[in-house]
Specification:
Blueprint: H1 2-16, E1 37-43, E2 50-56, H2 64-68, E3 80-87, E4 90-96, E5 98-102, E6 115-120, E7 135-141, E8 149-154, H3 165-173, H4 183-186, E9 191-192, E10 195-196, E11 202-217, E12 222-234, E13 236-237, E14 240-242, E15 245-246, H5 247-258, E16 267-272, E17 277-285, H6 286-294, E18 315-328, H7 332-340, E19 349-351, H8 353-356, E20 360-361, E21 364-365, H9 366-369
Parallel strand pairs: 1-18, 16-19
Antiparallel strand pairs: 1-2, 2-6, 3-4, 3-7, 5-6, 7-8, 9-15, 10-14, 11-12, 11-16, 11-17, 13-14, 17-18, 20-21
Length: 376
């Protein structure tokens, strides 16, 4: 039906313009190109180096995924940028943006051999990190004709985001307990519940857990690695952030992460040492929270999503986050289940002999309670 209507309309137009033009169905799919600066910068005073990604929009008459794989399609040739620090409305510091090429990128539609980013490092001896009480303004020039691109953000009050004292002491004294002496026989697991206080200016919180280990191949090559488990968003309840972490889900997560590892046949052992568990809480400010929420995958019938930006003269996001980590270790029985439990026994976990003698639970060390758990 659509084809018939098009041909009919074409015939009518042809008849009306018989002596002046001919019928054509040619048309341009692309509108006139409008170069739009695209900014992505998230400040985090828990790290010493701050990064900002600055790109431009692109369009072509062919497959745009082909253009995305060409670095020059989205890069500016001349970028001059700076980040200004303001405290109580007064300019206190200026940080020029420097250029850096990064490699070892994840696979994707964009050019993955290397990409250009911009960065700055606060270097003042008195305050080598960003000031959580300050406001930061990004100013970028990409051409002499265009207006400067501007955006600003506050920072998370990181000094207020702290692990609860019971959580901190428990991590040192008892470790993270996902199993006890009866777990192997009765298949019952325990739950760990780390808790922390929220940070000021934060609108969204997420928890992650990492299991750190040293992977040793049969060729004798050792690599420090970790498996990361995203525990999801956490809300403030009664003035605290608390996450219930299921022991059974922990071992399943390790299994899911390592299953299908392409080089598993090369692995001789995975050594668990001190501070093998890391729990991370990350807070996002309001702008970053809105940006993340709007850009979540659509799940309803309507798939068109609005665009959120706080960048003047372009699109994108300039926001802040802050992370606080807690290092601990798997308890004696939890370590045994990691090495010999049904979910993870295939992954060759063992305990560093130089570490396990100091880890006791109920007055017993690992090798005494579970002979053979130490690495050879």
């Amino acid at each position: 039906m659509k084809r018939i209507i098009k041909l009919f309309l074409c015939s009518v137009i042809s008849a009306a313009a018989l002596f002046t033009s001919s019928c054509t169905t040619d048309f341009e799919l692309n509108a006139e190109y409008d170069e739009i600066p695209i900014i992505f910068g998230v400040l985090d005073q828990s790290v010493d180096t701050q990064f900002v990604k600055i790109n431009k929009s692109f369009i072509g008459n062919g497959d745009n995924s082909t253009y995305a794989a060409i670095n020059d399609s989205s890069l500016y040739t001349n970028v001059i940028g700076r980040v200004e620090e303001y405290v109580d409305g007064a300019l206190t510091e200026t940080f020029p943006l420097e250029e850096m090429w990064v490699t070892n990128l994840d696979e994707g539609i964009f050019y993955t051999d290397s990409q250009k980013v911009y960065f700055f490092v606060p270097t003042a001896i008195a305050k080598p990190y960003l000031n959580e009480d300050a406001t930061y303004k990004l100013i970028v020039d990409v051409s002499e004709e265009a207006q400067p691109i501007e955006a600003e953000t506050n920072l998370i009050k990181g000094s207020e985001l702290n692990w609860d004292i019971i959580t901190s002491n428990g991590a040192i004294i008892n470790g993270i307990i996902f199993a006890d002496a009866s777990t192997a026989a009765e298949n019952d697991y325990l739950t760990s519940s780390p808790k922390c206080t929220p940070g000021g200016n934060a609108d969204k919180y997420e928890f992650k857990l990492r299991l750190h280990f040293t992977e040793v191949t049969f060729a004798g090559v050792s690599s420090e690695k970790y498996v990361e488990w995203n525990l999801g968003e956490v809300i403030v309840v009664n003035g605290n952030l608390k996450k219930e972490i299921s022991g059974e889900a922990f071992y399943s997560a390790i299994n899911n992460k390592l299953a299908g590892y392409a080089y598993e046949a090369d692995v001789d052992k995975r050594i668990i040492s001190k501070d093998n568990i890391e729990i991370i809480v990350t807070a996002a400010n309001e702008n970053l929270s809105l940006f993340m929420g709007i850009n979540e995958p659509a799940t309803g019938v309507v798939t068109e999503q609005p665009v959120f930006t706080n960048v003047e003269g372009g699109v994108g996001i300039f926001a802040s986050r802050f992370s606080r980590n807690l290092f601990s270790y798997l308890s004696l029985h939890s370590s045994y289940i990691l090495s010999y439990g049904a979910e993870t026994s295939a992954y060759k976990f063992c305990i560093d002999p130089s570490w396990d003698g100091s880890i006791t639970q109920g007055g017993q060390n690992m090798e005494t309670t579970y002979p053979g758990i130490r690495c050879n």
